[in-house]
Hints:
The chain is of the alpha+beta class. It is about 30% helix and about 25% strand. The chain folds into two domains: about 5-20 and about 230-430, UDP-n-acetylglucosamine1-carboxyvinyl-transferase, Chain (Alpha-beta prism); about 20-230, Alpha-beta prism (UDP-n-acetylglucosamine1-carboxyvinyl-transferase, Chain), CATH 3.65.10.
Amino acid sequence: MESYRIVGGTPLRGAVSISGSKNAALALMAGALLIEGEVVLHNTPQIEDVFTMVALLQGLGVQAQWRGNTLYLDTRTLIHAKPNPQLVNRMRASFYIFGPLLARLGYAQMPHPGGCQIGSRPVNFHINGLKALGATIHQNGNCYTAQTLGLTGARVYLDMPSAGATQQLMTAAVYASGLTTIENAAMEPEVVNLADFLNAAGAHIEGAGTSTLYIQGVTQLAPRVEFSVIPDRLEAGTFAIAAAITQGEVVLEKVLPEHLHALLAKLREAGVNVVERETSLEIRAAERPKPLDIRTMPYPGFPTDLQQPMCALLTLAEGASKVLETIYESRTQHVPELQKMGADITAEGRTILIRGVERLKGARVRATDLRGGAALVVAALAAQGETNIEEISHIDRGYEQLDAKLRALGASIQRFSPYALTATRQEEVKHIT
Length: 433
């Protein structure tokens, strides 16, 4: 069993370079299926979810090659649209390939996706949107089969601004004849990054970053596209919170501060000193944080993916905090794990109540999901004594070389693992049958 052993109490100091965005990279890789040719993606993070997506695409016939953090995809060899169910079950983002496969090949067969167990995550927005574009979709158990003789532009309204559904429908609409309008669309930076990538390939997409998207269908895209993945705002946010909880001083490099305004506003409210520059952030803290009230919201609101690490910070606040999780009803599994570390924290439905304590103590805890695991790492960095975090495979899904980056900032963190996350690990994922 893989685990982290962290001895807390050392302020983080120094500079850290933020990796490419997990969520953006996965969306770009799915969107690459629309292109019959070569796709070059710079700044692609080498993390478990990306390895899984590479293996998923390779199973469909796509050729993939790594050169550092640049990923080369040759999609001319795409041969079928029936992805490996075991790989699909590993992560939610696997479902993003459904629309691109359908748009390019005219058919697709997609198992229901897996991912972190953080609450209800239905795919009905995706399915209803594809049907609105003219797809015929049948469900047999946990498998969806779609066919089309040609997608047609339509007006689609999303009941909630789902980033996944927005990305899925935007890619499918690229090859739909006529104009597609997506209303109440997600405004996340990852949606904008995908739209910029598709436009670089010859798509006609307007409105990315607003609540209404307009996609004028095209018949083909460029045979070669070279593009860069944006920095991971969630990794940057995690490091910012880690700097604050350890009362350290950390410079985050290769980051876009405008993607983090909600978090930075709350850190300032908590008494953390934040200096924004064009592509970097300086985070400094010298005392316990002030208590906060936080409500997670779709972008540009406070991100649900940083709710759990922020809870870790607030366990040491001078006073009582309240956090309302409005996106995922079960994103509270970190609460009992933080309790093991001495936190005065409880969950009542979607509301998390926190009374700050003077110190946390090391304990044996378990990462139950990706961001919950990140919250335990953040807490352990500030706790007295040794913390052992088990099942860190969840954390590996979204953070590239997390332990090495933290050690470079002065943290005492060691990974105990039967293998390292290298190309060898990628091959293990690739050969799942």
